[in-house]
TrEMBL record:
InterPro entries: AB_hydrolase_1, AB_hydrolase_fold, Epox_hydrolase-like
One Pfam family per UniProt: Abhydrolase_1
Keyword annotations: Hydrolase
Domain of life where this protein originates: Bacteria
Name listed for the protein in its UniProt record: Alpha/beta hydrolase
Signal peptide: none
Keyword Zinc applies: no
Domain AB hydrolase-1: 54-286
Alphabetized Gene3D superfamilies for the sequence: alpha/beta hydrolase (3.40.50.1820)
Length: 309
């Protein structure tokens, strides 16, 4: 019994050492590329580029600002001022004790106010559609329009949901200190591959995701976000018809990750000022695979705003 206990302790120590080293290496290989803004004691990381009308890019779960590759940000920045945020606990943003979609919308609003941004166009991707919708419902006079990419608005059929109940358990927090990140990487590859189908994951994007998403703090944030999503959607869906700003919903016709029928199509039918764009031969990862479609959707919002004025 004693020799077995000694072996287990040795394995745990080795796992902890390897995990710490992997985290340091990941953050050295993929350091933060932007600025920080601190609100309510929470430091948020964001990338800013361009000028004119503000466009705020929000990523998926798990994810980071790298959900929007440089070429996508560059294209948008040719006509707009882009602000791409790491959501709380993802990338290089801090995580508050409570981080529901509504709380994250409140943090985002405080950050935008501190930076000096008024009435942005919000772009929500996948999980962060909930933040964009929460923002529009809570602050209807402070958003110009919304673009939703591969939206999750009703049915939170997320790959992490089966594990989400363990999000805040002490056992998970303990285990994550000893589980080598490369083991998590095997699950991550399947997760990304499904999201990109019928295309394949971008190699550089996968390397960054494998490095940053497998850090214990981000795994825990991802699970917490998955756990918080269903109840948030259940509450918000009763009020979607109140959203009175232009909304463009973009969905791939081959999305095997999120049901377009249960989310994007239903939301389009509920919003009186919405437009649905269906991209052929496209999966879930629209920011990575269809950058021009993102730009086109933002342009539709701008044209609608110009027409209304």
């Amino acid at each position: 019994m004693i020799p077995l206990l000694g072996i287990l302790i040795a394995v745990a120590i080795a796992g902890s050492f390897y995990t710490d080293r992997a985290i340091r290496q990941a953050e050295a290989d993929f350091p933060p590329q932007g600025k920080y803004v601190k609100v309510a004691g929470v430091r948020l990381h964001y990338v800013c580029k361009g000028s004119e009308q503000a466009v705020v890019l929000l990523h998926g779960n798990p994810g980071s600002v790298q959900d929007y590759p440089p070429e996508t940000i560059d294209r948008i920045a040719q006509e707009y001022c882009v602000y791409a945020f790491d959501l709380p606990g993802h990338g290089y943003s801090d995580r508050p004790a409570i981080a529901t979609p509504l709380v994250q919308a409140q943090l985002l609003r405080s950050a935008l106010q501190k930076i000096g941004i008024e009435k942005p166009i919000l772009v929500g991707y996948s999980w962060s559609s909930a933040i964009a919708l929460a923002y529009a419902l809570r602050y209807p006079q402070e958003v110009a329009g919304i673009v939703l990419l591969s939206a999750i608005a009703y049915k939170a059929d997320h790959a992490l949901l089966p594990l989400a109940n363990f999000a805040q358990s002490s056992l998970l927090e303990f285990l994550l200190k000893f589980i080598p990140p490369n083991l998590v990487g095997y699950f991550l590859f399947a997760h990304l591959n499904k999201g990109f189908l019928p295309q394949s994951p971008n190699v550089d994007y996968f390397k960054a995701a494998q490095a940053l998403w497998t850090r214990p703090i981000q795994i825990q944030a991802s699970l917490e976000d998955s756990k918080n999503l269903p109840s948030a959607l259940e509450e918000m869906k009763k009020r979607y018809s109140e959203i009175d700003v232009p909304v463009v919903i973009v969905v791939g016709d081959s999305d095997s990750f999120v049901s377009a029928k249960e989310n994007s199509y239903r939301l389009r039918d509920r919003l009186s000022h919405s437009q649905l764009l269906i991209l052929p031969d496209t999966g879930h990862a629209i920011p990575q695979t269809q950058p021009q479609a993102v730009v086109n959707a933002i342009n539709i919002i701008r044209k609608q705003l110009t027409k209304n004025n």
